[in-house]
Amino acid sequence: MTKHLTFILFLFSVTSWSQTEFFNSKINFSESELDKFYSSFSIDSSQVYFNANDYYVHAYDKETGVLNWSHYLANKTNNAPIPYQNNLFVSKHLSEYNDKCVQLNAITGDTIQTLLIESINTKPVFNNNIMYCSGIDAGIGGAVIAYDLKKNNVIWEKFIAHGVDKQPYFMKDKIIANAEDDNWFELDYNGKLLDTTCEYKANLFVEDIKCVRNFKYLTHNQKELSGSYFESYENIKVKYSKDQTIVLGENKMLIINNRNKIEKEIKLEEIITIPENQVSNYTEILKVEDSTVWFFHQNILVVYDFKNNKTIQTFDLTQWNVNQAILEDKKLWLISRNDGQLIGLELGPDPTEEALRAAKAKLFKQTHQCGNEVEAMNEARKKALETVKK
After folding, report:
1. Is the pLDDT at 166 greater than 90, yes or no?
2. By the 8 A CB rule, do 336 and 348 touch?
3. Which of 342, 339, 340, 334 is nearest to 317 (CA)?
4. Which one of 53, 187, 210, 365 has the minimum C-beta count within 10 Å?
5. pTM for this model (two decimals)
6. How far apart, in Å, are the Cα atoms of 220 and each of 235, 265, 266, 357?
7. In 3-state terms, what secondary structure has residue 108?
8. What are phi and psi of 195, to 5 degrees?
């Protein structure tokens, strides 16, 4: 009876998970191209756009894996291509000291126009033909920018220096942009500063922005989150659900509730096992649902139930040494740092483990002639306890 009980408990508590490769870009990269590794990708409803180490952007059909087109950029970057409707925005090297953002036709890969800015550094938002973003304009440097794509011209821009690499918050009636460090300021969609009479005047390198708010990030309900929860050198990732803000660092994850309080502090070493000598700089929150978060840490993809404090699934992706990943349902797209390839993986239970589980389920039914499996479990536990008492 003890053997049967062990089988039953194992059946209901342990599951291994695997991944099946369904796509590989199979581009022949030279050693010199991989030595200076910069690569990124993005997806839309029909294509995957791969800015590869061969200085091209390649567009693949998501369903068939067919290469639809390639466009030479003479440039490679960790800033992913930006798809919008039937357009794709990428950075292109035109000549020495001359880089420009280029708008491509996403269907054909042909150039629509060359923009007057060098790069788009964070995720933009679009309002018809107007693009709002942070990016580099050769005239002033890092800036928050409103760009008219129809007229191919800058409508307005505000210098923010190194704040260019921090994602602005695009609200319904205002933009909250970074002015270096933890200093943030507000402006409307016409580029007008909203706070110019503050009591505290900040002394910033960005001289014309005097009124700032000091915080780390905004939560899901637009409250300011401050405090030294993480070391300054950590690459912090933030993502939102309806009622929580998830903050992921190198060693822990925070769950922030509606009251702007830390509801849970989760030490990563307590919920996942990191392979020995594992070192990966890539950390990302891939998806947040009502009670679960999918996150990537040290080449491990983790599905964690933060309401019930339980690790649901883990996928060991060490063999690919991931540079970037995007999750779509049960499909995971990634770039491997080993060979620079774009990889598509189907996530699911390990086939061998599934066969073993099926065999155990069959054994369970054969040894317990009870129509209800829950009742059979209770009966097995009861008899096991009686055996122990004897």
Report:
1. yes
2. no
3. 334
4. 365
5. 0.84
6. 19, 17, 19, 40
7. coil
8. -125, 110
The sign one gets for the Cα dihedral 306, 234, 281, 34 is: positive
Statement: residue 264 has pLDDT above 80? yes
> Which tokens belong to 99?
């880089």
Amino acid identity of 379? E
Position 224, amino acid: E
List CB contacts of 169: < 8 A, sequence separation 6 or more.
175, 176, 177, 218, 222
Contacts for 147-152: CB closer than 8 Å, 24+ residues apart: 147/115, 147/117, 149/103, 152/113, 152/115, 152/116
Model pLDDT, residue 12: 32
Of 208, 187, 212, the C-alpha closest to 198 is 212
| R_g of the chain computed on alpha carbons | 25
pLDDT over 80 at 271, yes or no: yes
Given a cut of 60, whether residue 15 has pLDDT beyond it is no
CA distance 355 to 362: 11
**What 3-state class would DSSP assign to 377?**
helix
- Rounded CA-CA distance 69/60 in Å is 7
Let me know if 265 is exposed, middle or buried by CB neighbors in 10 A (0-12, 13-18, 19+): exposed
Among 85-89, 104-108, 201-205, 299-303, where is mean pLDDT lowest?
A: 201-205
135-159 pLDDT, tens digit per residue, is: 999 899 999 999 999 999 999 999 9
Q: Dmax of the chain from CA atoms?
A: 87
For the chain, the residue count is 390
Residue 372 confidence (pLDDT) above 80: no
The answer to whether 274 touches 298, Cβ cutoff 8 Å, is: yes
Q: What angle do CA 40, 44, 45 make, to 5 degrees?
A: 150
